[in-house]
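Hi all, long-time lurker, first post. I run a small reading group and we've been trying to get comfortable going from sequence to structure in the token notation. Rather than ask abstract questions, I figured I'd post a concrete chain and ask someone more experienced to write out its structure so we can walk through it together at our next meeting. Sequence below, copied exactly:
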Amino acid sequence: MTKRILHVVSNVAHYDDPSHLTGLWLSELTHAWDLFAAKGLEQQIVSPKGGQSPLEPRALKWPLLDASAKSWLSDPAKKERLASTARPDEINPAEFDAIYFTGGHAVMWDFPDSEGLQEITRAIWDRGGVVSAVCHGYCGLLNTRLSGGARLVVGRRITGFSWNEEVLAGVAKYMPYNAEAEMKRRGANYHKALLPFVSYVEVDGRLVTGQNPFSAKATAKRVVELL
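-- Answer (accepted) --
Happy to help. Here is the structure in token form:
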């Protein structure tokens, strides 16, 4: 049977300051989507509340806006996918072989405490599926617990957008928390590349994580390998 991937995107459109816009970092979705599609995998998109997933404005500027991301902006059918994402209660985890958490700073606000996303992630993991995230997407794993009560990330090698990258991006002072520090505090074995903003992926069993937007393709490739 054809393998199925569930992409997770944010519903948040701004930081605590409404004038500071944010949203999905589009290429983190599209790079993975394109690779999965090329492998013949079926895909669906879910968000914490369902409906519209706003886009991170900074990701829509050259040189970050590449051909993959542009294709979603110019294709009405693809744009509709982001305008009408599913709610967690509309998803049957048994139908999916992997979950892939996308990033963008927006997810720091609505991913960590979404019980619906946690339930889906736990169910996919318990069935032997792959759990993956790229960049800030790992915030969606901060509070996820396994059926036995332990946190999914405890003792596992993991990566995600580093605090140093937040500082270099000039947005550290606007962050609601230090995601790298919070992941370590929960017992994760956090790793990152020697240099910021280069592709870097960690694989620990069925857990696959990429450090930053430039890691999306490599993260997706490792997910495909596991499937």
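A couple of things your group might point at:
The beta strands are 4-8, 42-46, 98-101, 130-134, 157-158, 189-190, 201-204, 207-210.
The first strand starts at residue 4 and ends at 8.
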